[in-house]
Amino acid sequence: MTLRVAIVGGGPAGIYAADNLIKSGTPVSIDILERLPAPFGLVRYGVAPDHPRIKEIIKALQRVLAHPDVRFLGNVEFGVDVKLEELREFYDAVVISTGAKADRDLGIPGEDLPGSHGAADFVSWYDAHPDAPQTWPLDAKSVAVVGVGNVALDVARVLAKTGDEMLTTDIPQHVYEGLAAKTITDVHVFARRGPAYAKFSPLELRELNHSPNVEVIVHPEGFDVDKHGMEHIAQHKAQKMVLNTLASWVGADPVGKPHRIHLHFAEAPVEILGDRDGITTLRTERTHSPNEDGNVEGTGEVTDWDVQAVYRAVGYRSTGLPDLPFDERRAVIPNDAGRVLDLDGNPIPGTFVTGWIKRGPVGLIGHTKSDAAETVGHLLADTAETAWSRTPEDVDAYLRSRQVAVATDVAWERLDAHEIALGEAVGRTRIKVGDREEMLRVGRG
To answer: pLDDT over 90 for what percent of the chain?
Structure first.
């Protein structure tokens, strides 16, 4: 009999799991259930619009969705439209792949002031996520971005570039209008540790200096590499490349571009100052690394930076799901190599997990492939002797009974064609539809 599998979450992690199931040789029937009307998760809603090369991965993901044994069921929310108990009635196995979309906190005073933003929220806005607001406050002159990963670079770059520079991308009109009206001239990026530990990828960092309107300034204060830092970069080729790029920018003569991105190292945020009218200051403390583990300690030397907004880009965090255990400290669903564990540490039959909700938000998109392979291997081993007699038609009938307006793969293809047509009408590749009601209307129309 055919193995029936439900995958909850239509991002890369879930689609890679479907791909592994297809390639296993086991007869399978797979439904990918996604809360949004469109698939691809963070590839669609988490990649900066001026980095279209990364979105090329969508072509490979689309081929998986086009397989005859895979169905995309969008606009189906787990825990609202269907519960875990009900999925178990329709499928031999359930794979949770809902990723991580919430922002981690800094854990400092003033973090809840107006003007303190999570990077994930800002990314959702400029990527036209259907849950994001149509407007974003960009009336500051100087802003701070806290973090040294690629998301921090994306946020800093989008904040610094002009709106007209982004017209070559797929941003919709409301995002362009917001970026065109912004008053930001200076973006300060802060790293707790020294430059040897920066987590930027070399390519992302070099691209930071490609804009004709944005100048990158690496401040020499805190730009120290001690013996521990040298040992660290000796073991990590990519970080050595990052350090070489940063070092080439230290002390460079200014060229007078209208916008600036400042990179500050060994500066740990300790407090955000302001009032209910907004932020006035980010306070940081100079740090040093006392030993080889790369952790830092404060030196007591404090600096106040004149900024009117702070963006936290210190990592994503998964959130719990109904009827499933959740490790709040690690922000993952407890699991043993993909098998979901109950509160006593025992595997929950037929329930699996993959991607960031499994291991935490670390690594690049491609790393989810190995996650999926591990999870699917255990799924196939655990379900070798089982197969339900339920069919896709049973699922369809159930969702109709719940009056769920399912966005099928046909609806997604219609939306995709609509976005391409919008772009072609104004000489661009695509213009993304950001309003959820519009997405549903186009998908069903």
So the answer is: 81
